[in-house]
């Protein structure tokens, strides 16, 4: 029991009868939840901004993929929440799907983790083969299935582009 219980018992009981204490605790809990969601959103947006400037490495992408697989979620409207969208875009920026966007100048391809000479490409290819389950997994959520399709599509674009890089660089 709190130290103030004995002094304020009649007041506390009258507040409980009116439902005020329960509401106050709920509002406090909601505020903490909103605060934690704000932190998650800020961290995800920071990772996205970082991946736009410097692509994530192979191990970081594996961790990000695993995190998205376990923690992809929807907001109240049924759309992907801000955290999931920011992390998905960080993944897509890191694997460089820039060939689907119009651009005037060519970026430094060697700075990306998927290059013709890197072992990363083979590792990602093997992982992308392993990403596709032989049988549908009952534990996969509908959110993850759709998100996985987006990530696999981006990976397919990147791998296809990576296989064509030596031909385009030689010309």
Task: Report on the architecture of this protein.
The chain is mainly α. It is built from six helices and no strands. It is globular.
Chart the SSEs and their pairings.
Blueprint: H1 5-18, H2 20-53, H3 58-71, H4 82-95, H5 119-131, H6 142-170
Helix pairs in contact: 2-4, 3-4, 4-6, 5-6
Helix/strand structural class: mainly alpha
What average pLDDT do the residues reach? 69
Helix content: 55-70%
Biggest pleated-sheet summary: none
Low-confidence stretches: 3-14, 19-24
Strand content: under 5%
What is the chain-wise order of helices and strands? Answer: HHHHHH
Overall morphology: globular
What's the end-to-end separation, in Å?
79 Å
Count of individual helical segments: 6
Instruction: Using the CA coordinates, give the radius of gyration.
Output: 24 Å
Number-wise, the strands total 0
In short, what is this structure?
By secondary structure, the chain is an all-alpha fold. The chain is built from 6 helices and no strands. The N terminus is likely disordered.
